[in-house]
Amino acid sequence: MTNGTVKDHMKRYDQIIIYFVCYTLIFIIFTTTLRYTIPFVLAFIFASVLSRLIRGISSKLKIDQKYIRLPIIILFFGIIGTLVTMLAIGIANQAVRFGVAVVNYFTDNGESIMFWFNEKYHWLISQIENLDPRLIESGNQMLNSALMSIRDISLSLGTAIGKFSVISITGIPSLLLVIIFTVVCTFLFTRLMIKEPHFLLKYLPIEKENKGRFIGILNEGKDMVIKYALSYLLVIFITGLISSFGYMLLGIPYALLLGLVTAFLDLLPILGVSAAYVPLGVYYFAHGNIVVPAGLIILWVIVAVGRNVWEPRIVASTLDMSPIITIMAIFIGLKLNGVLGMFYLMFMAVGFKVLQKVNVIDTFANNINDQTGGVE
């Protein structure tokens, strides 16, 4: 390995270290201050979308932007507010009913469930010869402890739902304040972005000769992330919508709540909607219902085939994220610090890929190609 190659590798390692440090600091500052800045963050995101939409409509219809700016913002928040309110009320209603049903079920059938598991455990042990009695007793204690924990968790679910309802009601004034500030700031940010899209550069320590390159990198990275995120969210929304309607047609209770869970599971690579359909199918099949599992198979075929049709058309750009990277980010992040850790690693991977796409961070593959002359 030549000195030039070593220097190239060191340069790439330096870039990765700088990115890791900067990203970590920004993430910590952002998450710790989000409770105070949430209206302005939401307003900035909404304004970024609305300013582009208003400019596009204005240029196509040859209408002055100031005449369509306010109606489009009102229409946008009207549609978003209506959909979010309806969805939140429906999900909250079903979540409460589901929680109450789980509590009642374990209260009424807890003893019989524990008896059934103990019976199956002792039957299994009876099929194994020459097993140490101490292992049998230890396994029995572990089983009973696990069942008691499950029962306690299920019974505490009712209390948690009650507390959540109280917190939600007491938090309504604060929520209304956030909504008001978000709407007002969205209007102000939109007006500012239409006049000067890169107004934030005034407050960044960037030299004039580097502003053009910085703007180019920022625009390309922003477009890549926004297009990918919105496109993928639309794909997941379609999957959740189809699943909810399918659950309703099959007579599965809590269809809206299960549709939301299915849409979330669709984020997981490889597993996808199967992680929701298979357990439901097994549950109904175990209870002697053949129609629901058959319907779920048909629903899975519809979603799987449909994804291959609409996903390439909707997802205009891709970050070429490896499924193993996504799985590692989710698992390791959850182990490190729960949901916050998952988002930390997910956004780190996405940001790193974006910076490689826009040639801010070099790839080691480029170095290998340089050494081999591009010959494989």
3D structure, described in words:
The chain is mainly α and 376 residues long. The protein is 85% helix and 0% strand. Keywords: Membrane, Transmembrane, Transmembrane helix. Belongs to the autoinducer-2 exporter (AI-2E) (TC 2.A.86) family. One of its GO terms (biological process) is transmembrane transport. It is found in: Membrane.
Question: How large, in whole angstroms, is the Cα Rg?
Answer: 27 Å
> Mean pLDDT, rounded to whole units?
76
Count of β-strands = 0
Oligomer: single chain
The amount of beta strand, in percent, is under 5%
Question: In a nutshell, what does this entry contain?
Answer:
The protein has a domain at 1-197.
List the helices and strands and how they pair.
Elements: H1 3-61, H2 65-126, H3 133-170, H4 172-195, H5 208-250, H6 255-265, H7 274-286, H8 291-314, H9 323-357, H10 364-372
Features:
mainly alpha, 376 residues, 0% strand, membrane, 10 helices
